[in-house]
């Protein structure tokens, strides 16, 4: 008797939840009364044949945001919900989320410092138009390159400046000089000193995290030779503004760092809004190290990356 009832309850549940039949239609199909259908559905839930799970992305991301804020000692975490676990798709979603967040905090008179790379380029195309009085946009690291690959440094500055109806201050230099002596000499140029100082004074800094994978943009831009590339890959897990750090978030290439043009990681720590925009399976290790180093107080990412950082099982596994 119970076996027959169990089987009937399962069939009713399949028709109702999977095939989306109405209770009336099920009653007609199985030639039973409509109240019997209702009772069988309840019986199926009580017996555990039916388990209803509700996924609320707003609620879930809010919970992960709070956990990351607590664990990583961050002022603010914003998690974008990407439809699929694909690095390019993730960039699009976190770019939109970052643009929304920036729009919520930006004010007249702000100095906004920006890095370069594909994530920030995507973000610059998602900015919400707003006129700011007395605001300025400044480049945080050198970006000139003769590689066929683009770092989008100029496009990012232009998009930010146009969006906020203000002017951009460019840093017309490579991010890495071949010798410390040349770098120190260039640092003394009046215009360069002024732009670098403006980067230090910026109250908002927006940047991403790079990796040390062979296809990382920094390497594709030919800023280093093969020996330097090997040295970086041996000791570093990622970079921010082309300054490389190890798994503990500490600078691990001091000689290279001394030849690097732009804001230092220590200076990023002092910003009112130091915003890291990054996500994707390939960047988890670099992001974790960057957050250990406390170079950001605001972190904008996606739900897959957030779960990985919290030690939860994700589609990355």
Give an overview of the whole structure.
This protein is an alpha/beta fold and 317 residues long. Helices cover 48% and strands 11% of the residues. The chain is built from 15 helices and nine strands. Strands 1-9-8-5-2-3-4 form a seven-stranded parallel sheet, with helices on both faces. Strand 8 (273-277), helix 14 and strand 9 (298-302) form a beta-alpha-beta unit. Helix 2 crosses helix 3 (34-47) and helix 5 packs across helix 6. The longest helix has 19 residues, at 87-105. The radius of gyration is 26 Å and the shape is elongated. The mean pLDDT is 92.
> How confident overall, as mean pLDDT?
92
Which ranges are low-confidence, i.e. pLDDT below 50, for 5 or more consecutive residues? none
User: How big a fraction of the residues is strand?
Assistant: 5-15%
- The succession of helices and strands, N to C, reads HHHHEHEHEHEHHEHHEEHHEHEH
Tally of separate helices: 15
Order of neighbouring strands in the sheet with most strands:
1-9-8-5-2-3-4
How many E strands? 9
- Rg, Å, rounded: 26 Å
User: How is the biggest beta sheet arranged?
Assistant: 7 strands, parallel
Computed structural class: alpha/beta
Helical fraction equals 40-55%
| Overall geometric form | elongated
Distance from first to last alpha carbon: 45 Å
């Amino acid at each position: 008797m119970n076996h027959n009832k169990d089987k009937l309850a399962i069939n009713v549940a399949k028709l109702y939840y999977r095939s989306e039949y109405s209770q009336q239609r099920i009653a007609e199909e199985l030639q039973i009364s409509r109240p019997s259908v209702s009772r069988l559905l309840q019986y199926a839930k009580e017996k555990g044949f039916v388990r209803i799970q509700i996924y609320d992305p707003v609620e879930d991301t809010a919970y992960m945001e709070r956990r990351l804020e607590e664990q990583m000692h961050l002022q603010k975490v914003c998690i974008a919900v990407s439809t699929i676990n694909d690095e390019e798709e993730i960039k699009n979603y976190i770019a939109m989320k970052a643009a929304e967040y920036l729009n919520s905090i930006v004010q007249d008179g702000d100095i906004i410092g920006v890095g370069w790379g594909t994530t920030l380029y995507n973000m610059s195309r998602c900015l919400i138009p707003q006129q700011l009085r007395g605001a300025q946009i400044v480049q945080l690291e050198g970006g000139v390159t003769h590689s066929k690959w683009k770092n989008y440094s100029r496009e990012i500055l232009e998009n930010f400046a146009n969006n906020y109806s203000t002017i951009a201050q460019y840093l017309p230099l490579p991010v890495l000089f071949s010798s410390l002596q040349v770098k120190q000499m260039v640092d003394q140029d009046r215009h360069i000193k002024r732009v670098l100082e403006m980067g230090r004074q910026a109250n908002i800094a927006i940047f991403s995290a790079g990796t040390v994978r062979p296809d990382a943009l920094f390497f594709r831009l030919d800023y280093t030779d093969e020996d330097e590339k090997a040295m970086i890959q041996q000791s570093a897990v990622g970079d921010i503004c082309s300054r490389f750090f190890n798994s503990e978030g500490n600078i691990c290439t001091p000689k290279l760092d001394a030849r690097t043009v732009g804001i230092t990681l220590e200076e990023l720590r002092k910003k009112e809004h130091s915003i890291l925009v990054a996500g994707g399976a390939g960047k988890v290790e670099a992001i974790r190290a960057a957050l250990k180093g406390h170079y950001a107080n605001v972190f904008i990412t996606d739900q897959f990356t957030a779960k990985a950082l919290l030690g939860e099982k994700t589609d990355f596994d």
